[in-house]
Design a protein that fits this description.
By secondary structure, this protein is α/β, with parallel strands linked by helices. Helices cover 50% and strands 12% of the residues. It has 8 helices and 5 strands; from the N terminus they run αβααβαβααβαβα.
Amino acid sequence: MALAVLALLLLLSGAAPAAAAPPRILVFGDSLTAGYGLAPGEAFPARLQARLAAAGIPATIINGGVSGDTSADGLARLDWVMSDHPDVVLVELGANDALRGIDPKLTYANLDGILAKLQASGAKMMLLGMLAPPNWGRDYQRDFDGIYKRLAAKYKVPLYPFLLDGVAMDPALNQADGLHPNAKGAEIIAEKLEPAVARLLRQGGVQG
């Protein structure tokens, strides 16, 4: 009798489902993601992971930022980066396009190509928007700033309208170049972004 009970317990324990692995989140971007000028662990992806953990949401965040990348550079290296098979991808590209005055039509086409590949992979997506500087004129600003809303609508993905919300143009939150957030600025980005990412994880059914 005892052996039969033991055998049943072993059978039931073997049938128990394994705990779900934490979702893997790729932040795919440029120097803003890479953490240009910051110490390891200070870039906003690392701070975002810490904030998600503090909110009781385990996640593994992969920093896929490369300083200097344009949207074209991102499209060119996407297949290699996706070898990590992330569950969620936050797309942060376009800032360098705007700084260089690249035709918004080209930026749109590159980001469109990135989102199409991500959609085909089955990964959940979020667009992290950027705004053009004023030096290229109002027409350029209008065309560039509209890229992210158009793509978010096309692919039906959430849009975080401006990654640098609350940080841009504030000397206390940026490095000496006025373009890259300092550690305090990166922390604010993560703080503002965390609720949107948490919502995406819950709605997408990928929360661990």
